[in-house]
Amino acid sequence: MAMKKRISLELRNRSPAEVVELVVDNSRSADGEVEGLTDDFTGLEFLSMVNVGLSSLAKLPPLPKLRKLELSDNNLSGSLETLSEKCPNLTYLNLSGNKIKELSNVEALQNLKSLQSLDLFNCEITSLEDYRESVFELLPQVTYLDGFDQEYNEAPDSEADDEGGGRDGEDGAGPTGDYDEEDDEEEDDEGSEGGEEDDEDEDDYAEEEEEEEAAGVQGQKRKRDVDDEGEEDDDDEDD
C-alpha cells in the first residue's frame, strides 16, 4: 500500500493535528521520499516508518513535538541534517538497518540536544574501529547507543515506560481496571474452592458421625446379645 493512502487510512476521521502516534510500517514510499505527511501533523509525538523504502528525508515536514522516530530498515544514507531541522525535540531515533557508513553521517545529530537514545544497529558504521567510543564522543547528549550505555547497561524498555506514564495513561491512573477484575475473579475462584472444600469436610464429618453412631448401635446390640446369653446360662444353671 502506498504511504500516502496508508496515512489517510490511519487518520480514522481525525484531523492531522489530533494525531499523536502514526505508524505506516511496510507501506511504500514514492521514489524513496516521504509522502502524505504534512506540517498539519503539529501534535505528532511518535512516528514509525519502518521498511518503507525511504532513501531521503528531504520531504519530511516540520514536526516540532515529535519525540520518537522509527526509521529502521530503509535506504537512508548521507547527512541527517534534515532531522535536526525538522524534528528538534527528538529523544529517541532508530536508524538501524540503513546505509549509514561514516561518522560524518551522524554528525548533524549534534543539534538534537534532547536526543537520549540512538540505534545504528546493522548499519555499516558499526564496523568502524572504536565505533561506540567515537559516537559517544561525537554525541555527548546520547545516553544509549544500540540499546546500551557506555558501561553496557541495557536501556530501559520504552514500551514499559509508556505504559507506566505514557500517552495512554496520562492521568496517572494506569490500567488498573483489568487488574482489579482479575483479582476479584481469583478471589471468587479461591472462595468457591474454599467453599467446596468446606462442604467436603462437612460431608466427611457427617459420614464419620454416622459410622460412629452405627458402630455404637452395633456395640449396644452386641452387649445386649451377650447379656441375653448370660441370662440364658443362669437359667440353665438354675434348672
| Low-pLDDT residue spans | 159-188, 190-198, 229-233, 235-239
Based on the structure, what is the oligomeric state of the protein chains? single chain
- What strand line-up does the widest sheet have? 1-2-3-4-5-6
N-to-C order of helices and strands: HEEEHEHEHEHH
Question: How many β strands by DSSP?
Answer: 6
In DSSP terms, counting alpha (H) and pi (I) runs of 4 or more, how many helices? 6
Helix content: 40-55%
Structural class: alpha/beta
Overall mean pLDDT: 79
The largest pleated sheet is described as: 6 strands, parallel
Summary keywords:
disordered C terminus; alpha/beta; about 40% helix; about 240 residues
Write up this protein.
Helix 2 (81-86) links the parallel strand 3 and strand 4 (92-94). This protein has a six-stranded parallel beta sheet, covered by helices on one side. It has helices spanning 3-11, 81-86, 103-106, 131-138, 158-165, 176-238; strands at 21-23, 46-48, 68-70, 92-94, 117-119, 144-145. 41% of the residues lie in helices and 7% in strands.
Write the layout of secondary structure elements.
Blueprint: H1 3-11, E1 21-23, E2 46-48, E3 68-70, H2 81-86, E4 92-94, H3 103-106, E5 117-119, H4 131-138, E6 144-145, H5 158-165, H6 176-238
Parallel strand pairs: 1-2, 2-3, 3-4, 4-5, 5-6
